[in-house]
Write a structure and sequence with these properties.
This protein is an alpha+beta fold. Helix content is 14%, strand content 24%. It has one domain. It has one helix at 40-46, and strands at 2-6, 12-15, 34-36. The chain has a 3-stranded antiparallel β-sheet, with no helix packed on it.
């Protein structure tokens, strides 16, 4: 499952990985604002604490 968020309204949602991320937010309807949420491993690797 892929996790996504809207950069405008901060709505978070999950979709099947085989699906492409939506072009519009299912909550606010704004186009081009959806981006994938990083998983915990990526956040740890990108931080200075690791």
């Amino acid at each position: 499952m892929g996790k996504f968020t809207c950069n405008r309204c901060r709505y978070k949602f999950t979709m099947k990985l085989k699906d492409k991320p939506p072009l519009t937010c299912p909550n606010c309807g704004k186009q081009g604002t959806v981006s994938p949420l990083p998983d915990a491993d990526k956040i740890i690797k990108d931080s200075d604490l690791y």
